[in-house]
């Protein structure tokens, strides 16, 4: 079997990492992979050992020419099936390209934002099957009219191995210039509105009143960076909040946190939540999208309602003030990731859908 994968992301965020896991798992199972990605995308170098990589311009929703470029790639490589892994125009233009080339196409949907029923009825005709990374996203599509037999949930996974190593928390703090017993909360997400950074900043005054030595590390980059830096300065948090940017050694840092905060307004599943659990870090997340599938309230973290700053404040105070509770939740989180979010299960799930589509 040969599969053409289309990933339009330029950076190795959660979705692109999932594509790498799938490429690795499929290659180990004898599948031939071809990856189409943007010119200069970070995934290209990582994927070359697992797939033939075709770099091309990918300009998003307005890039009509992507249809022709992907159609030519399909004709050149003759895949049995096309798997589109992202949006940014790749879903629509990739679906049209596959349809014009007469090759069956499946779509991975990683976000839970709603779409109009008429858009769902039109766009999803392009795909033989839709794969959602959480049951929460699947329910969104069903509510918008997609036929149940056309959509399946195959949860995202995480390679836990890099996060199982113990992190020297005192050394981690020393590297940052903090005392060994400094409490640290972190947030790992793109700097975009729906991730909810504003909720974290809104909760901080009351949290700092009770935990004045708290440090907050915000990992990631995106269009909100300048705005967030200004907000941190305006609110007087310069001594408590650090924007860390995108780091290559996240496994060496994540386990140094006492708490991961993820108050997103919308989220397909949240790979950073799985990574944190693998690193035995308790989580505060919103009860939205697929996050309740990654975080079980009271087991490996605390769930709050979307945008509820009061609840976020209370949860942060509670966990920061109870080391034993954090330890119990951290252990439960690691056990949950190891048992329910394996890369092998995700690869087998995707492969089963390929076989189902091709059998038809």
TrEMBL record:
Gene3D superfamilies tied to this protein: Glycogen Phosphorylase B
GO MF term list: glycosyltransferase activity
InterPro entries: Glyco_trans_1, Glyco_trans_4-like_N
Protein name as it appears in the record: Glycosyltransferase
Residues covered by the Glycosyl transferase family domain: 169-335
Entries under Pfam families matching the protein: Glyco_transf_4, Glycos_transf_1
Domain Glycosyltransferase subfamily 4-like N-terminal, first and last residues per copy: 14-160
Organism: Denitromonas iodatirespirans
